[in-house]
Amino acid sequence: MSPRVVPAIDQDPAIRALAQTWPGRILLVAVFAALLALLGFDPLVGLPAAACAYAGGYRWQVIPAATLLMLCRAGFLVDTELVARVASQERIAGVDQTWLAAGMIAVVVVACTGLLKAYRHLVKLTPFRWPALFLSAGFVGLVLVAETPIAAGMPRLLLWSFLATLLPYIWFLAYALNEAAAVSPPAVALQLGVFYPFWGSTLTPFGKSVSYLRKFEARNAEELAVTQLKALKLLVWVLLLLACLSALKTVVHTQLGVPEFDQAFLNFLSGASFPRVLCYASLLDNFAEDVLSISIWSGIIVACARLAGFGLLRNTYRPLQATTLIEFWNRYYFYYKELLVDHFFYPTFLRYFRTHRKLRMFFATFAAACLGNLLFHFIRDIRLVAEMGLSNALAGEASHAVYTLLLATGLGLSQLRTRTARAQQGWLRGRALPCAGVVLFFCALHVFDAPLDRQHSILQRGQFFLYLLGVNA
Fold first, then answer.
1. Cβ neighbours of residue 314 closer than 8 Å, sequence gap 6 or more
2. Pick from 238, 234, 416, 441: which is nearest to 329 by CA?
3. Cα torsion angle, 149, 145, 336, 230, sign
4. Contact, 401 vs 373, CB < 8 A?
5. How confident is the model at residue 395 (pLDDT cuts 50, 70, 90)?
6. Signal sequence: where (predicted)?
7. What distance in Å separates the CA atoms of residue 35 and residue 15, rounded to the nearest whole number?
């Protein structure tokens, strides 16, 4: 973040000193809450974040309490619509959804607690050595059971209720199990306290685990002041990005008449194709809007964590400075990349092809970016199995499977490519052209990126891609 755009208030000694006084702290939290409100985010998040930051030695007791409070407000993120749909499909009436949800939350907490306590012994058994694979296989296995005829009726409703309750926390549990296998793991209550922490997250954990958070914890008043001032800077930056996104949409769609990418694709299928130049423009605009959007919502989450005293790294950081595919992947969605690396890349890298360096790197990258990526999204969108049926949901994965295959191949080759010193190539060859190549790759790849689209086949997307290349009329 350039200080010419957002002032480097964290580097000003006077401002840092003010932020360590109680009047300064109150002002900082108030400004932070006001910025959250301007961004359309819940300003009340600032209160538990401030309580966590200023709790001193009680910080790690505040975190579970604050997380529990925020989860209670959000209904523990249970997909109640999915549970209601399954109840309707099974023609089960009279089920109190509130009590069913409360019961399943208790079941999930007890199951996670028991698993974390027993994992130091379970990890010695082969099926449990790879936590992510063990959890994924168990989750998908329960889905398969739920979709069999023998589970019809109340068993199917109970299984889907359990799955809908566990889903938001499954990757937090994977990180916690990695910790649980250590010599001195954190207390189970503390581990559960960072399952979907109060500062916000997605299915991808922002902050990973207790051990990871400890690395970024502010240790004294000076560090805390700097971390919180960086949180304030980040929110200001996010507000500017939001203004840029709004302006981009107005100029591109309203003034220039460029269609949304989905509209361009649907028009092609209906036989009323937009001119290719507009389709190209819609792809480039979709890329720009996507990068701005993820920078905005992930920036808010990281800023809230920083206000709480944890100097987490930004999720999206200068992605257009990337000159290789793998560098863009690292800059675009850092915590999702970390999830795939931690749970799929490293376990594969440490186990297979140890005597073949390049094959080892490529295979591990492929395991993460293709297999792990596809598995993550299948689990994330598991509600589609209940809505469409298992066979239709699997068939609808074809397009996204091709996307992950192409992505993994591109990233794997990017990892292996011999790099030439960029400084010696000049700005055009060293930065501009490689960056343009990265952008074009991800724009072209987006044609097949349809994790939520089960309506259109890979053939239809392939035909649209050929249209963009000018192959068909």
1. 234, 298, 299, 302, 334
2. 441
3. positive
4. no
5. confident
6. none
7. 19
Domain ranges of the chain: 75-196, 226-469
- 3-class SS of residue 217: strand
Buried b (16+ CB within 10 A) or exposed e, 268-307: beeeebbeeebbbbbbbbbbbbebbebbbbbbbbbbbbbb
What is the reported pLDDT for 451? 57
Closest CA to 207 of 71, 297, 308, 112: 308
- For 245-250, the CB contacts below 8 A with 24+ separation are 245/289, 245/292, 245/293, 245/296, 248/285, 248/288, 248/289, 248/292, 249/289
The residue to which tokens 């301007």 are assigned: 38
Does residue 3 carry a pLDDT above 60? no
Cα-to-chain-centroid distance, residue 302: 12
Residue 115, both tokens:
């698993």
Q: Chain-wide mean pLDDT for the chain?
A: 90
Give me the percent of the chain exceeding a pLDDT of 70.
Answer: 96
The band of 424, judged by pLDDT with boundaries at 50, 70 and 90, is low
Which DSSP symbol is given to 455?
S
Residue with more model confidence, 164 or 45: 164
Query: Which tokens go with 177?
Result: 């199990």
N-term to C-term CA, the chain: 45
DSSP 98-129: HHHHHHHHHHHHHHHHHHHHHHHHHTTSGGGS
Residues in the chain: 473
Segment 215-229 shows an average pLDDT of 95
